[in-house]
Design a protein that fits this description.
This protein has 165 residues and is α/β, with parallel strands linked by helices. The protein has 5 helices and 7 strands; from the N terminus they run E-E-E-E-E-H-E-H-E-H-H-H.
Length: 165
Amino acid sequence: MNIIGIDPGLSGGLAHIDISNGKLTYIDGIRMPVLQISTKAKAVNAVAIVEWFNKQHFDAIVLERVASMPGQGVASTFAFGRAMGGVEALAQTMAHEHDCRVIYASPAVWKKAMGLSSNKQASMDMAAVTFGHNPLWQVKANDGIAEAALMAAWHYRQHAHSVLD
């Protein structure tokens, strides 16, 4: 069984994990590819995301169901919404092309079940424990990949037997 996890923010990431005989293995991942569309604005790089997806074999996609945060400014909320919408559309398209589905996971649910908080270092540490040593888990900027992989692991642990088997 292969699951893609997606942390949809501009500093998020995508991760592919494999589960064989109950063993979780990190296969591949990337930081969210972005384009600088003006001096102040960025957007998800849809072409790079599709190219990455097309190199993967997967049975499900788990997308973090996110919302704006209290106190977040209008411009950052709009940018975050654009990124989420773009990634969500790509996930739905890839799921359709690969005859699988997108499962939405709220951070409050999957992080609580995994014993995580908003602490990004804790996510990096848990990725190292869950998937084994990998230099990837030593680079702070890869926290989105770690969270995407952990979200996929959460889905397997909570739902895979009833949904995917």
